[in-house]
Design brief:
single chain, 343 residues, alpha/beta, eight-stranded parallel β-sheet, three-stranded antiparallel β-sheet, 12 helices, 34% helix
Length: 343
Amino acid sequence: MQQITITTPDDWHLHFRDGDMLGETVPATARCFSRAIVMPNLVPPVVNAQLASAYKSRILAARPQGSQFEPLMTLFLTNKTTTQDIIDAKQSGVVAAKLYPAGATTNSAQAVSGIEALYPVFEEMQKQGLLLLVHGEVTEHHIDIFDREKEFIDQYMLKIVAAFPELKVVFEHITTSDAADFVMSSTNNVAATITPQHLLLNRNDMLVGGVRPHNYCLPVLKRSTHQQALRKVVASGSSKFFLGTDSAPHAKHAKENACGCAGCYSAWSALELYAQVFDELDALDKLEGFASFHGADFYGVPRNTTTLTLVKDSWVVPESVTLPSGEAMVPFFAGKTVDWKLV
């Protein structure tokens, strides 16, 4: 197949950051996605409806002229989050709340410690119809980083979905066969997003021949058997899995550092790379469901009515992108060839 036209997709998990960086990240996403779930881990984090509304206004101001791109806002859960915060968030149009275990990823120091303490908040979310988005990793230092997703399932996810059967839960950016199996065996109120990097790469791509900081993300890349398990579930066409890039921009100097930042900035190539993966799997007929239908259906919002076209035409991802500040940023798959191109 040399060309495919699909319903305009949405990105159900990404990071825009804030300030001047919005001038880069918002147009990069709006070029091919109609909507996006916006992560709330700013500094300070988006912990209430007022902050979410203000952040949304800044994102809208950064849209390209004439763009109809719609940011879908989320709340950052902390141990200080109240049930009233959830009620106010729902009334203001916030669609979900994000659970970060403290220290799990970028700007998560103020996140949750003692997850059970949030059960009253989860109860209110279930009542209000606010989705729970989960960064599913434990953060205890004695647990191997490659085992932290499975440990989170065993310690927390099983209990959360059992205690709140009507709460819609998205297991974000899953990386393991354990997570895929958990989602598949759960009720229809449990789904997952999968990133391009976890479909394309495994930990060899980050570590063999020297550390490659621009492939470092959290959750970290896993062994190839887990990568193959993720590729298998997306090729199956299961509606429990949908597109979430976890596009996460960082300046080049912040990645190429003695303590480099986690995150892959994939916005400029993600849709094309997903197409490449589905093509490799002989499953291009499943791409539209994964990219355009499953997420909208799970969130309970209308599917998009516009379309876009991808053609099989090779191009090379730029080695760097210049931020409005003048700083360089290395995009995901920099310098590599992508087989599909957005028309």
